[in-house]
Automatic annotation (TrEMBL):
One Gene Ontology molecular-function label: biotin synthase activity
Chemical reaction(s) catalysed: (4R,5S)-dethiobiotin + (sulfur carrier)-SH + 2 reduced [2Fe-2S]-[ferredoxin] + 2 S-adenosyl-L-methionine = (sulfur carrier)-H + biotin + 2 5'-deoxyadenosine + 2 L-methionine + 2 oxidized [2Fe-2S]-[ferredoxin]
Needed cofactors: [2Fe-2S] cluster; [4Fe-4S] cluster
CDD domains recorded: Radical_SAM (cd01335)
Protein name: Biotin synthase
The UniProt record lists the keyword NAD: no
Any Pfam family matching the protein: Radical_SAM
SMART domains, per the entry: BATS (SM00876), Elp3 (SM00729)
Amino acid sequence: MHHYIAELGEKILDGGQINYEEALTLGKVHGADLHFLSAYAFKIREVYHGDRVDLCSIVSARTGGCGENCAFCSQSAHHQTDTKVEINLDEAEILQRAKAMEVAGVHRFDIVTSGKGYKLGDPEFTTLLDIFKKLREETKLQLCACLGVIGEAEAQAIRDVGVTRYNHNLETAESFFHQIVSTHSYKEREKTLMEVKKVGMEVCSGGIIGMGETFSQRVEFAFALRDLGVDSIPLNVLNPIPGTPLEDKEPLPPLEIIKTMAMFRFVLPKTNIRFAGGREVNLRSLQALGLVSGINGMLTGNYLTTKGQRISEDLAMIEDLGLKY
């Protein structure tokens, strides 16, 4: 198998692409060959992205009370979780958080809201636009937004206040999507990504692995993101939340997660692929392996409703691997 991995790896390093069947074959990799796969993924990452790890941080401006029924989400009003509805549109507080992240070494800052989305003229949306303006004026951070379903007019308004990237996750493969959410469609998510691309913003779209999908569905997911031409892919690993339909889901083995990350790098050599939620819980002592298996970005600090490890620990891990931020 190591000869096959090397053949695929060299094709990618020479500027080529692998096909669906080749990516699917990577699911059979195990033992020492898995670490060989990781090494090639790391080499691909090094050639196309250098040795810098792109760091981003998020803040929730609206938490909980969402009318959608995503099976993994603690913020859904359909589930009985401990997440409370909270709205934080305090400009000074968000600005303070952003500046602290900038000092810590973060490159990007993302404001996230729960709920279906916004329309131009919504008072909350107008307030968010004002906050983004202030962030652009008072920090050097790259600004990202994750505000749900939007149309071209809303996307243009977000771009006009200085936001360069919009996050809207596909979450999983289209063939598995119906098992995770029924209140909206996969096509609706794709449509929002198209509206974002229309106005010239970068697209950040990824999802969650470990929700019960097969390896072939993860491959399907990776190719869907490649076909859409996304710029950044946050890869979350399911962190089961009590009260959600997935609360008892058996976790993926750490090496299966590493294999999946390496596969994503083989499929998407030039795309930013970042560690996101669930890495601490699922990879535990093997987190560093993600950064030497193709990952070149990291969501650092706390997540929306769960705690992350300290930023200082993430930075130490990056430095210990001889990487930069």
